Each structure stands twice: as C-alpha cells, then as structure tokens.
Amino acid sequence: MSAPAGLPIPFWVLVKDATARTxxxxxxxxxxxxxxxxxxxxxxxxxxxxxxxxxRVVPFDTAIELDKYNLAHGGQARHFELAARELGYLPVRxxxxxxxxxxxxxxxxxxxxxxxxxMELGQSLSDGKLSGPERAxxxxxxxxxxxxxxxxxxxxxxxxxxx
Length: 163
Fold this sequence. Notes:
Oligomer: single chain
Order of helices and strands: HHHHHHH
Shape: flat
Helix content: 55-70%
Number of helices: 7
Structural class: mainly alpha
Largest sheet: none
Radius of gyration: 20 Å
Number of strands: 0
C-alpha cells in the first residue's frame, strides 16, 4: 500500500490493509470468525478491512488472535509486525531450545550469517550502489542474522539462569 509522494498513509488504513491481507492469507472472513473468540460475524471483518468504514478497525485482542493463528499456519503476524514498525521496534520471534549445544549452534550460525552478509554487501557495493534486488537480499540476510543473534542471546541467558 502506498500514498501519493510525500504523504504518509494513515495508520488506520494500514491496520485495515493488514486485516484484509490476513483474511486473504486465511482464505476469507469466515475463517477469521472461526478463529476469533469475540467477533461472531464475517460481515464485521469486511467492515474492518474496508476503507468505506473509517471508524471500524479490528480490535487489538482479535488482531492478536488472527496473527497467532496465521503464524501457526505458515503466515505472517501482519498486525503485530505493523504495530512494531509503527512504534520503531523490530519483531524477532523468541527462539526455542536451550543448553550449551544451542549456544554453540546459534553462535556458529550467527558467524556464518554475518560472513555471508558482509560478502553479499561487499559484492553488491562493488559498483557503488545497491539495486532493489540487492537490497532485498541484504535485508533478508540481516533479518536472519537478527533471529540467529536472538537465539544466541536466549541460549546464553538460559545458561546463566541454569547456574
């Protein structure tokens, strides 16, 4: 979703877009009703995603339920990711698995990802600029590194708690 040059998109429009895309991910508003513990009509989800209904956006608790369900089915946490970006946060999933072996595994992955990132960045900047595809690859490598570092941090913290 984009706005005319120089104009920000209102946050409520972004929330509606996240709701609409979640509905698409889950194959329709009737699935959203089945997931929700509070919203009992698929018509409400149509309102929540429609620009025509300015004063209706999905309730926060329902947005979290939809995101949780969508994640469990291989989708994205669209509402959560939108809120995190709006607040200036980077969402990183809490890793699972603990212990010394996990510390070593996570640190090895982090080192590999960092090396791959630096190599990709160096190759991409050889012509003095980053193209769109190069930016996308580097962004994806950075995201992987952030997840790997979060797992390393969690594994080290768990080791400290165990002592």
